[in-house]
């Protein structure tokens, strides 16, 4: 079985799981518990705070406080501000800082000669003459005067209150009044100087802008002349007008060329007979068309006459021959006229095409000029924009300069003195009780904070929650711290003196072991734990005390119990019980004695057998881890109901880890207030890695009156436990220095 499964089967939780399951938010009750535990720290600091407050109230100086009020408002000049801002309320905090500036305070100190004023310095005799040019003197004056002056803004108003506290009533009033005067003077001078600087700057800038505007204007005018603009309108110029005319002319020439070309092709491709008939329908053919039409009429007339003669005369008739000759001549003239019509149409076409070409050439030339004009217009637009911008800036600065001149004379009316400082009639002193209350409260707060700091730095385990969180194990019982009782020790045996369960069976101490017995018997499921091992992380945590008392309580339950001292290095069980330590566990393991021969008995508890450690061996770990030891424990299982083993500390030697492997229940003892988180976790890890069945932890030497355990588990006074002396008093070991307060030296 793995370590993890073994630990889980015995109720052990991993540290992270245990911490996450047991961690809880800090409540008010936890805080009160911490304060109660560290109450002396809180009380001491509260007392120191009260004493300090009483001392401060008794020794406070007799200071005289004078105050004055001034009003800072926007004034009538607000509308002429260069910034244009009309809200002055946001500037009051700035004015408050200016009133406490080093320059203003040093000016006041110089004017009032505070460096040589005994009342200011707090001395009775006039001091030696101090030089304010000395940096140390100057810084001292500024620091001391700044501590005496308080400047505050009165809420929701434009008023500022200036208060000065000093040893002299007149000096307090003089400082306040002088500070107000210097502040007003500084305000006027600074604003006038500011306006002068602004005016000088604006004047120099205006001169540069003026020259720049003039140069830009000259460039714009030159460009207008070069571009041929009318006035300053870039859309009216000679090139643009010519371009419009040429564009229209080019369109007209193109149309004329198209028409001429069409007439020429129609006439050149037309049948001559059809040409004579359709020439009248062709426009713009000139005189050739008219002549052709006239010849066509003549031809028709001659042909009519020829037709009349041909009916009456023979073809060879001279008259008929003359008409035929006339017809041939007319036809010849018609052919010439037709050629002239076509030639005239061609000439018209050629002229129209030449006109178009010339117009196009002129248009392209004008376009080139227009493109150049466009580039010039772009430059002109840029120059004109620069000119307008410079002119606007120039005009604006001129207006600002005039406004600044007016504002410089109006700014001085923005500060009004509402109340002049008057010497106070008496000193201003705080009641002594206020110092006591305030310092006492501060002391309490510091004490509470210190209590929580000390609590966080304390690595000791002082409560059940802390121990369970650190170990990841449940707490089985709380063992109270043992004290002396009123019982006469001379009447008790050694065992009764050292075992509280025998001498005080009804005490809280004994009842805690009964609770531990119950927790152990219920810790394992299915069967009772037979071999119970008690161990701790470090020495002096009370293992022997708890082991002996637990063995007695288990034996009182009418079962056979064996108390086995497994500490072979520093055995103490035989001393506690008054037994012989010469024969014991080592004797049985070496074979020099049997178990029956080695066990011893107590008369007070017949059911309890004791097996002391015997002689100290040279190799305790090897002996406890031997097969003989395992056989002995198996033999004890068959004889006794419970075997309680007292083992050495885990972090000192490995004896306890070796014994834990054969145990049915392992109990880890944690001493209240002494064990640390690191040691407990280390001891737990050693047991887990060894596969030991860890049952839980027992918290030993608990002060039940402490805030962490007040009334815990009903351990407060209960009538059923008997007399008050028995209830409130518990046992303290008398056998020696090894068991003081439920602890031993191991």
Question: Mind explaining what this structure looks like?
Answer:
The protein has 27 helices and 12 strands. The strands form 2 sheets. The chain has an 8-stranded mixed β-sheet, with helices on both faces. The chain has a 4-stranded antiparallel β-sheet with strand order 2-3-1-4. The chain has helices at 3-9, 15-22, 28-37, 39-59, 92-99, 102-112, 118-121, 135-148, 169-227, 238-268, 272-278, 287-312, 318-408, 432-457, 464-471, 494-498, 500-503, 508-521, 543-555, 573-577, 585-590, 595-598, 620-624, 627-639, 655-660, 677-689, 724-728, and strands at residues 64-72, 149-153, 159-166, 415-419, 475-480, 531-536, 561-565, 600-601, 608-611, 642-646, 665-671, 694-702. Helix 4 (39-59) runs antiparallel to helix 14 (432-457), helix 12 runs antiparallel to helix 13 (318-408) and helix 18 crosses helix 19 (543-555). The radius of gyration is 64 Å and the shape is elongated. Among the domains are: 238-408, Helix Hairpins (Orthogonal Bundle); 462-486 and 493-739, P-loop containing nucleotide triphosphate hydrolases (Rossmann fold), CATH 3.40.50.300. With 746 residues, it is an alpha/beta fold. The longest helix has 91 residues, at 318-408. The model is unreliable at 1-25, 76-90 and 713-741 (pLDDT under 50).
Observed structural traits:
746 residues, alpha/beta, Rossmann fold, 8-stranded mixed sheet, 4-stranded antiparallel sheet, 27 helices, 12 strands, 57% helix, disordered N terminus
Write the layout of secondary structure elements.
Elements: H1 3-9, H2 15-22, H3 28-37, H4 39-59, E1 64-72, H5 92-99, H6 102-112, H7 118-121, H8 135-148, E2 149-153, E3 159-166, H9 169-227, H10 238-268, H11 272-278, H12 287-312, H13 318-408, E4 415-419, H14 432-457, H15 464-471, E5 475-480, H16 494-498, H17 500-503, H18 508-521, E6 531-536, H19 543-555, E7 561-565, H20 573-577, H21 585-590, H22 595-598, E8 600-601, E9 608-611, H23 620-624, H24 627-639, E10 642-646, H25 655-660, E11 665-671, H26 677-689, E12 694-702, H27 724-728
Parallel strand pairs: 5-12, 6-10, 6-11, 7-9, 7-10, 11-12
Antiparallel strand pairs: 1-3, 1-4, 2-3, 8-9
Helix pairs in contact: 2-15, 4-14, 6-8, 6-9, 9-13, 10-13, 12-13, 18-19
């Amino acid at each position: 079985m793995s370590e993890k499964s073994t630990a889980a089967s015995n109720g052990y939780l991993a540290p992270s799981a245990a911490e996450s399951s047991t961690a809880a938010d800090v409540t008010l009750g936890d805080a009160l518990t911490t304060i109660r535990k560290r109450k002396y720290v809180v009380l001491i600091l509260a007392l120191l705070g009260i004493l300090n407050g009483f001392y401060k109230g008794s020794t406070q100086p007799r200071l005289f406080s004078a105050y004055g009020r001034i009003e800072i408002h926007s004034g009538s000049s607000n509308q002429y501000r260069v910034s244009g801002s009309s809200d002055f309320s946001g500037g009051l905090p700035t004015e408050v800082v200016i009133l406490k500036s080093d320059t203003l305070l040093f000016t006041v100190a110089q004017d009032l000669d505070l460096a040589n004023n005994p009342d200011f310095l707090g001395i009775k005799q006039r001091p030696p003459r101090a030089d304010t040019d000395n940096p140390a003197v100057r810084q001292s004056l500024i620091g001391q005067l700044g501590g005496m002056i308080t400047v505050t803004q009165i809420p929701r108003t434009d008023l500022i209150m200036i208060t000065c506290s000093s040893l002299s009533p007149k000096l307090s009033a003089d400082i306040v009044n002088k500070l107000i005067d210097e502040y007003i003077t500084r305000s006027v001078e600074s604003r006038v100087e500011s306006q002068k600087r602004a005016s000088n700057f604006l004047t120099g800038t205006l001169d540069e802008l003026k020259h720049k505007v003039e140069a830009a204007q000259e460039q714009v005018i030159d460009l207008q002349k070069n571009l041929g603009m009318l006035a300053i309108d870039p859309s009216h110029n000679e090139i643009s007008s010519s371009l419009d005319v040429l564009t229209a002319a080019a369109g007209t020439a193109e149309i004329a060329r198209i028409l001429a070309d069409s007439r020429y092709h129609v006439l050149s491709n037309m049948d001559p007979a059809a040409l004579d008939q359709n020439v009248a329908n062709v426009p713009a053919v000139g005189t050739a068309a008219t002549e052709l039409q006239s010849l066509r009429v003549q031809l028709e007339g001659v042909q009519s006459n020829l037709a009349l003669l041909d009916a009456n005369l023979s073809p060879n008739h001279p008259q008929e021959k003359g008409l035929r000759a006339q017809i041939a001549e007319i036809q010849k003239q018609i052919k010439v006229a037709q050629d002239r019509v076509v030639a005239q149409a061609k000439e018209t076409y050629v002229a129209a095409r030449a006109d178009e070409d010339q117009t196009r050439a002129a248009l392209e030339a004008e376009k080139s000029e227009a493109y150049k004009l466009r580039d010039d217009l772009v430059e002109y637009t840029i120059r004109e924009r620069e000119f307008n911008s410079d002119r606007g800036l120039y005009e604006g600065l001129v207006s600002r300069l005039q406004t600044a001149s007016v504002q410089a004379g109006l700014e001085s009316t923005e500060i009004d003195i509402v109340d002049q400082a008057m010497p106070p009639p008496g000193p201003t002193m705080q009641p002594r009780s206020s110092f006591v209350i305030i310092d006492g409260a501060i002391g309490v707060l510091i004490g509470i904070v210190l209590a929580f700091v000390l609590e966080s730095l304390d690595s000791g385990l002082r409560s059940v929650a802390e121990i369970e969180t650190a170990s990841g194990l449940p707490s089985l019982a709380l063992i109270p711290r043992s004290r002396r009782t009123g019982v006469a020790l001379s009447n008790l045996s050694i065992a009764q003196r050292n075992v509280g369960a025998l001498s005080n069976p009804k005490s809280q101490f004994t009842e805690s072991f009964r609770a531990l017995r119950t927790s152990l018997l219920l810790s394992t499921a299915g069967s009772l734990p037979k071999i119970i091992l008690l161990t701790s992380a470090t020495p002096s945590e009370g293992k022997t005390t708890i082991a002996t008392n637990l063995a007695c309580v288990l034996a009182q339950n009418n079962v056979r119990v064996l108390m086995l001292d497994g500490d072979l290095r520093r055995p103490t069980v035989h001393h506690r019980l008054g037994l012989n330590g010469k024969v014991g566990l080592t004797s049985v393991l070496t074979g020099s004695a049997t178990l029956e021969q080695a066990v011893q008995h107590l008369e007070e508890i017949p059911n309890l057998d004791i097996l002391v450690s015997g002689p100290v061996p040279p190799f305790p770990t090897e002996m406890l881890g031997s097969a003989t030891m395992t056989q002995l424990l198996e033999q004890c299982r068959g004889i006794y109901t419970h075997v309680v083993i007292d083992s050495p500390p885990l972090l000192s030697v490995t004896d306890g880890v070796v014994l834990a492997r054969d145990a049915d229940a392992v109990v880890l003892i944690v001493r209240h207030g002494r064990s640390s988180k690191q040691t407990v976790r280390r001891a737990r890890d050693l047991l887990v890695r060894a596969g030991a069945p860890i049952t839980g932890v027992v918290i030993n030497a608990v002060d039940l009156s402490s805030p962490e355990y007040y009334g815990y588990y009903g351990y407060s006074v209960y009538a059923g436990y008997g007399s008050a002396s028995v209830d409130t008093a518990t046992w303290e070991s008398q056998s020696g220095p090894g068991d003081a307060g439920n602890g031993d030296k191991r």
